[in-house]
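name: query_chain
kind: protein
chains: 1
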Amino acid sequence: MTKERLFSRLYQIVDSDAFFKFRSSPVTILAGICAIILFGASLGAAVFAPFDPFDKASIDLINSLLPPAWQDGGEPMFLLGTDDQGRDLLSAILYGTRTSVLVGLISVSLAVIIGLFFGLIAGYFGGLADALIMRLVDVQMTFPAIMVALLIDGVSRSFLPRDLHDSLAIFVIILAMAQSIWPQVARTVRASTMVEKGREYVQAAQVIGRAPWIIMARHVLPNVMGPVLVIATINLGVAILGEATLSFLGVGIPASEPSLGTLIRIGNNYVFSGERWILIYPGLTLALLVLSINLLGDWLRDVLDPKLR
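structure:
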């Protein structure tokens, strides 16, 4: 891409309605800044974290339950204090946020792929395919993600060794979150596809003999992605919150590995004994992360929904 085309593209982005709505809303700007900071710090946890909470050689139980550095008894090297295992809480939060973000991104991406596939088929072909897929969607929506995770976790505990079960815990969460999200994507894509397949450009592609799969991939899919992006953004926060909930219940990430849910669960045990920082700072991080994603999802909905323009 030449320099002139690059500047032209940047000007189009800056001059777009989406960017105008973004810069005219201080709340959205603040949410975007928070999301960038949290995502960047968590994904770059190996660079920004003072310690590696996975390195057992660097963890000393003597340093357990130390308060933040500005309180009496705190150590300057542990800015936000330590947890019950002697891990630096700031490092554990960064690595735990990375786990939550990766689980959210993978589960939402998987749900979008499945939802797009079934939604396009149901909306384009209709008939028996539509009836079967929509009944499957109805069945899937009757099972909450937490119940599915508990079911998979209980079955895996019965058949798998403990070490193998702990290593597969993250996949249980991803499957449970994806299971609860893809029916929403499928329903939205089906409704949009039913509208798009009646338009002139789709009928023209059918007249010239284009295969249905090519029409769905090249013509229909780009025009149904707007609502899907909104659903994916909003459900990213739901998936992150779901991972924390499952880890808090003991179904998700093992207690030996840092996670926002496990840190909150550990902090809940010490909230009445005075070590409240283990609960407060991971809880604030989780709340700020989910809130910023939801606010960005609302902004994206306002931009892509023609009824709200």
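note: The CA atoms of residues 79 and 121 lie 53 Å apart.
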